Amino acid sequence: MFYFPAYGGLASFFPFSLGFYGYCSGREKAATGLLYIAFSIMTISLTFDVLGDQWGLWHYRFNVLPILPTYLPWDLTLMPVAVIFLLQIKPEAHPFPKALMFALGTAYIAEPLIHWLGIYTTPHWRHTYSVPIQICIYLFAHYLSKRNRYQALND
């Protein structure tokens, strides 16, 4: 098997290309709100990731930074950019189907993939446990996107 952390920078290219697409698609006026949402999602996912690792629910085999026991490319790039990308697609659509699609995609596609790649092990965690957490994360991001402090996504 190949040494996956060496490809962490390459794995981060895809989410940034999605973010660039969102910026170039005429949503640059809503960039402040999207960055606020992205930072909120980064904070939530990093916190949950650290807690899960510290409580022994899962364990990462590789530390990108020796001081943090998490896999930062997922928490700081993939998760927030995926949420922002989904928020920009049909922003007037009902949030629950999009939240369910996001949760099922992360729980049953992304998590098994990084488990198969050998990035982390799950001694006390099932992928199904992630679904309600991911739904709540997406719905929180949707709530933040509908607040009136920033320009709406559908303008």
Automatic annotation (TrEMBL):
Keyword terms of this UniProt record: Membrane, Transmembrane, Transmembrane helix
InterPro entries in the record: CBO0543-like
Keyword Transmembrane listed: yes
Key word Metal-binding present: no
Positions of transmembrane segments: 6-24, 31-51, 71-87, 99-119, 125-144
Stored NCBIfam families: CBO0543_fam
Protein name: CBO0543 family protein
Source organism (scientific name): Paenibacillus aurantiacus
